[in-house]
Amino acid sequence: KNDVIRLSSNDPYQKFSLSYAMAQSAKLFIWEMRVDDTINDVKYIPERLASTGKTDLTEKQISKMIGKVFIERTQVNLHSDILDSPDFLWEDDIHEPA
Prior knowledge:
The chain is mostly helical.
């Protein structure tokens, strides 16, 4: 709250680069939260199976949880370009880190 970012110039490339980095960071945060939520929702199953050899879930419930994990994995794989640099940074070497 009330954070301020001061740029050293009014260069539009600097503004775009910072905006892009912040947007990518926000996207990554959302994906991390979704994956963490999914892991937390299902992690007790293998832990319980390892300790007791049993689970009180039906086959249908287990299938739904497996489906949820596969959906999250697929979504992450589809959006794996999240950490790529935008094309305009490749057009001019001055924008790439040394």
